[in-house]
Amino acid sequence: MIISRVIDHTLLAPDAGYASIVKLCEEALTHDFHSVCLHPPFIKKATAYLKGTDVQVSTVIGFPFGAHLSHVKIYEAMEAVTQGAAELDIVIHIGAVKSGEWKLVSRELEGIITATPDAVHKIIIETCYLDDEEIKRMCEIVIDSGAEYIKTSTGYGPGGARIKDVTMLKSIAGNKIGIKAAGGIKTLNELMAFINAGATRIGTSHGLRIIKELDEQQRS
Fold it and tell me: One of 8, 89, 122, 165 is an active-site residue; which one?
């Protein structure tokens, strides 16, 4: 496994400007990260900068709370793909989950995925707000929706990725879908712990630190 290729190099700070996005893309190219993950207004710039490279452009949909009307999320996803996004990190309607409105959640995800068939879909279930039964139910819904990945967290909730949640998701999903761990992953040891638990993609804004630790480890 090439560590850099499981990392979505992420910049979702509200004050990030165009210069920061260019820097993010430069870093992703230098270190061969799988993708850059950024807000929708920056898709065109990142897509132009990364054209002809192996680095994908990821963006977020319904971010960070998932509390958008379903047709707004669908439009946002379609527009993101039109502008060049290859991968979509989509926040579920958390309030609907907590209300037991499973059909609403399922219909929303299926609507987004149907409208963007050529994109990779990573469904953010924000595990810090869910109990174990809700996490299990959401994993089943994500598998049935046709998404390619289930993702733990936005990084904006009160908690990020947890090993126990990734282990649970892996026990349910097996190899049916990928698992993306995100939120608070800052070190190489943390990244490897999540990979060993079953994660197949890592979202982090600390990719440079992780690669530096990996280089130091390989030299020692």
Answer: 89
Nearest in space to 25 (alpha carbons), one of 15, 16, 37, 13? 37
**b/e code 95-115 from CB counts within 10 Å (16+ = b):** ebbeeeeeeebbebbebbbee
Residues 6+ apart with CB under 8 A from 158: 128
Residue pointed to by tokens 């990945």: 149
The catalytic residue among 8, 122, 151, 165 is: 151
Question: Catalytic residue at 180?
Answer: yes
pTM: 0.97
Q: Give catalytic status of residue 151 as yes or no.
A: yes
Contacts of 95 (CB under 8 A, 6+ apart): 66, 67
Q: Is 132 known to be catalytic? A: no
For the chain, domains (ranges, CATH) are 3-219 (3.20.20.70)
Summarised one tens digit per residue, pLDDT across range 133-177 is 999 999 999 999 999 999 999 999 999 999 999 999 999 999 999
- Average pLDDT in the 199-216 region? 97
